[in-house]
Design a protein that fits this description.
Distance between the termini: 30 Å
Order of helices and strands: HEHEEEHHEEEEEHEEEEHHE
Helix content: 10-25%
Strand content: 25-35%
Oligomer: single chain
Shape: globular
Length: 264
């Protein structure tokens, strides 16, 4: 429940317009739930399947026994940074459509059709400190920046399969925006799945501002995949393979409309 999370944590909502990056007139809603160095990022993705609204009205009786309390969310947050193996039922740092965000408006309840839950932990260590990336959720603000295009120079394109131990989140650049710093990140990961969403990639390029959370990003795993069975109203992304690759190499993202009107 969005309102119960807002009662316990700082929640920052941002809206991303998909037209400039993916060529379709839809939006992504981002909810940053902040607890110290921990970020729970909930992304409500557009309904490409039949071009219907992102939210569907639902009766309270249908969901009341399946609501995850803020206390269980807190337990998950603690398990992220625990030195011991988590025993909670939510073990992955990226969950696509395994949980759904619910909100209450005007005494009615709405559930998101497509929800991506991701957990991140923000640290600041110099590059000579070997920060574990086993679960691919560490945002290290202190590492030496490396742009994706420089990293990939002389290498093949991202392969279909990249071993788990090589997956990583890299700091690309730090830019000043007024009195704030924007940290740009990109993810080195493969495309292990051909017949479903590569949800392990999550928000694979993104921008972070301290105190505001993740303020922009890309969701290639979602927009690139076309289900085998679709409706006649399915929204297709008409990017060429070269355009997809250009977006990745140039680290293009969608920016929060509320914070960056000039980048729309």
């Amino acid at each position: 429940m969005l309102d119960s999370l807002a009662s316990k944590y700082q929640v920052n909502k941002y809206t991303l317009n998909t037209n400039k990056l993916y060529g379709v007139h839809t939006e992504v809603e981002m909810y940053n739930i902040l607890r110290g160095e921990i970020i729970l990022l909930i992304s409500v993705l557009p309904n490409l399947y039949n071009n219907q609204p992102q939210w569907k009205e639902i009766q309270w009786q249908e969901i009341e026994n399946n609501i995850i309390s803020p206390e269980k969310i807190t337990r998950r947050i603690i398990n992220i940074i625990s030195p011991y193996e988590a025993s909670d039922y939510m073990l992955e740092s990226k969950e696509f459509n395994k949980f759904s965000l619910v909100k209450k408006e005007n005494e009615k309840y709405y559930v998101a059709k497509f929800s991506l839950f991701e957990w991140f932990y923000v640290v600041e260590f110099k590059s000579y400190i070997n920060v574990s990336q086993i679960k691919n959720y560490i945002l290290n603000l202190g590492q030496n920046p490396i742009k994706r295009i420089d990293f990939m120079e002389g290498k093949d394109k991202e392969s279909f399969f990249i071993p788990h131990h090589l997956r990583n989140i890299y700091l690309s650049q730090i830019e000043n925006h007024g009195n704030e710093k924007i940290y740009r990140f990109w993810t080195f990961d493969g495309w292990q799945v051909s017949d479903y969403y590569n949800e392990h990639r999550g928000i694979d390029r993104f921008a972070y501002i301290e105190g505001k959370g993740i303020v922009g990003g890309s969701y290639d795993f979602y927009f690139k995949f076309v289900p085998k069975y679709t409706s006649k109203n399915h929204i297709y992304i008409k990017l060429t393979p070269e355009q997809w690759e250009e977006n990745r190499l140039q680290e293009k993202i969608m920016w929060a409309k509320e914070l960056f009107p000039e980048r729309q």
